[in-house]
Amino acid sequence: MDPQIVENSYRNVHLDFISNKNGSNPSDIVFASLPVSLMVPILSLILPFIYPLRYSFMKYSSRIVFHLSVEVIIIIIPVVLCTTILAGNTFMNSLSLFIVIVTLFFVTPNFWKPSARTVDWNQLWHYPISDQRPSFITNYRSGMSLATAISILAVDFQIYPRRFVKTETFGYSLMDVGVGAFIFAHGLLGSRICHSKGQWSKIYPIIGLGFLRLLSVKSLDYHEHVSEYGVHWNFFFTLALIKGIAALLKLPIRPSVISTLILVLYEIILKLGLQNWILSDYPRNDFISSNREGIFSLFGYTSLYYTSMEIGDYMKKPRALFQDWVGLLIQLLVLSIVGWNSLPYCEAIFGQPSRRLANTTFCIWMLTYNTILLSCCLTLDLLLVIVDYRRKRILNGETSNMKPILREPYSMQFINRNGMFYFLLANLLTGLVNLSFDTVNMNSYSAMTILIGYVCLLSSSTAYLSASIYGY
């Protein structure tokens, strides 16, 4: 048989394998995303027990290698498992991990001293916490990048649940939240940074990556889902243009007002016929019609970006004490609850969420999803602050036996500082794997071996880059 025919046949099989999916439901997607956040406190609370191993381990490696090895075992590999072969019941996965956290929360202080004193809640309420670089934001941004990196390769294997695959037109799925979460995370930097002239130095490389991806996909005849962004469009162009719009559009009004105006205008235009045209089989015979999903979804994604800017500005307000961060947590929880309860009404009025359109329901869903994850990360971070507070009370100056409470794992720091490199490398490795293996027909053992090797390579490469730049 002609090799070209075989190649085209497999390409079509692969495309069918990741197309025409209907997704899942919002709660399933949230519970599927929680293990990334839940593994951070598990690592932090387990570390004191295994910390003595560091000294024998460091005879053969550095401190960073020790921590990275432990974090790959405790954080990254379990997240891979929860996203693939253990994804049958996402609620039970999250509940089991939460039970482990609660158990360690009570056991760990007794590790330092059996007669551990209880928490003085009044003193804890005024316990100082630095607001220079909140750990929970680092964990949120890095966790989102890690989950995205796992999904973009895992989706090509049978071990990845089909309900997590991107929906064809409408619905909720784990892979649908990737772009929205990326844009939301970038907007959290706040309006001052997003509007600054320095943004352009970051925008140009993103545009370059967009063209690099376009050229590589077309030259290699790599499988692509045209209805996702269009014929020539991709995520990098979307992100670059949104950041460029924010850098240019410096209006003397709050980001939330701009966000609302954009979304209202866009929804009106969608209902006047734009939505039907975007989702139709209309020929892609010019640049706009060829890339209609990518071009017009910019309205919705820009609105989401401005909304996250507003939240980012609020989160940057000075907070020095434990009680201040509890106040922020309550506000994030209220926003999450309001968003969650508004989803059914949004569906009734505007229709189901669509990543292809980035319609109002999708934007509300993305706002809700990301504030839920932020709330979870902040809750778990405050839990670790309580443990750290107890550690200091228990030891009362006995620094020789003090064990660290690591609120911000090294792997999360590395991903956060090199987010674009991490995402680009994940895309390159994903393409390499797909060009080298028949992923669709691969058995579970082989697929897991490749996935674990993939995440280990991503982690070690990002760590090496961070060590070279920041000198760990």
Quick one: overall form?
globular
Could you say which structural class the secondary elements and strand pairing correspond to? mainly alpha
**What is the total domain count?**
1
Q: Which strand-content bin applies to the residues?
A: under 5%
Helix percentage: over 70%
Average per-residue pLDDT, rounded, comes to 87
Treating each run of at least 4 consecutive H or I residues as one helix, how many helices? 20
Largest sheet: none
Q: Low-confidence runs (pLDDT<50, min 5 residues)?
A: 1-7
Overview of the molecule:
By secondary structure, the protein is mostly helical. The chain has one domain (3-470). 72% of the residues lie in helices and 0% in strands. The protein has helices at residues 3-17, 26-50, 53-57, 63-83, 90-112, 121-125, 135-154, 177-187, 191-194, 200-220, 226-229, 235-248, 255-278, 287-290, 292-315, 322-350, 360-395, 410-417, 419-436, 444-470. Helix 7 (135-154) crosses helix 17 (360-395).
Topology (SSEs and partners):
Blueprint: H1 3-17, H2 26-50, H3 53-57, H4 63-83, H5 90-112, H6 121-125, H7 135-154, H8 177-187, H9 191-194, H10 200-220, H11 226-229, H12 235-248, H13 255-278, H14 287-290, H15 292-315, H16 322-350, H17 360-395, H18 410-417, H19 419-436, H20 444-470
Question: Which descriptors would you attach to this protein?
Answer:
mainly alpha; 472 residues; 20 helices; disordered N terminus
